[in-house]
Amino acid sequence: MGQGRVGEKRRVAEGAPRPGPVPLLGRVVEPLYRAVIAARNRRFDRGIGVHRVGVPVISIGNLSVGGTGKTPMVMHVLGVLLRAGLSPCVAMRGYTARGHGDAAPDETDAYRRAFPHVPIVARPDRIVGVRALLADAAIGVDRVVLDDGFQHRQIARDLDIVLVDATPGRSVFEDRLLPRGWLREPPSALRRAAAVVLTHAELASEDHLRSLRADIRRLHGRSPVGQTRHMWTALKHADGSATGDDRLLPLETLEGRRVVGCCAIGHPDAFVRSLGLVVGDPGRVTTMTLRDHDPFERATVDRLAREAEKHRAEWIVVTDKDWSKLRRYPSDCWPCPVVRPDLSLVFDDGREAVDELVLSAGRLGPKA
Questions:
Q1: Are residues 297 and 330 both part of a single domain?
Q2: This model's pTM is above 0.85
């Protein structure tokens, strides 16, 4: 999509992510968190508490809290496995948005819509869930793909792919551990990854990408195996039929239009910038960013509708992940059509290398 300056007519950011808690608390707690993480990883390094599930396991993860593009990468991996005639499943932590304990996790719904025949395990105890699925001979799963699995070391994996976000201002090499920053593990944890992939390259300059690649070589020992960008290729609009099918619209549909964009994801900047570039006129874009995994209660939906009415929006644009919750509301609650981007993970380089790693997972035996 390329870089570009994106402004908005107005931004509503109630509940949006903020960097770190109170600095004093962060300085006190961060060393304790670091010690706990180090002790935990030493146990796993010795194989304590690590379980094998009997089929090759591929993990897609990262070092930080928030979006780095895990869902698009998991979908890419699923596509590679399916095209090779394999039968994968997805295993995730079973997160459900607060207030919707009986609802499917955001990513679960997105995976089911993209891959309706791929089994999904979404349970707090992923080991129990995966083993129960594998015990069902009628399903016949022969690969497990862990969504956000780098820190979930209880399941032995054959391939660890770690994503590093290339967005300026989000470098894992300049961040701090929780709760002072957003890191779940220090950057040195990259050493145990089989491969590192740079994501969101569309938002970074070549100088910034070069610096990230050098940092990754320094800590991981090898350059990133691949580099990707997230590209909007079309717009998806639910046709309102009983089947819930989507109609694809060209990106030019939004060009020069008055638009309200809303997202509740870990990396809102990428969505906001891409929307501004598609519309082409920052003065016609209003954005509403919410905390990651916001449940989109009725009050929030009503507020979004009011924003659209206030700014005389011709389109409301949301992410596909957020549509998983918004699609339960009737179409007559919106003052204008609601669309979401058809997002593609595009490799600048390394696609063949990543695909080969995915297909060869399991040949050398599982890792902790």
A1: yes
A2: yes
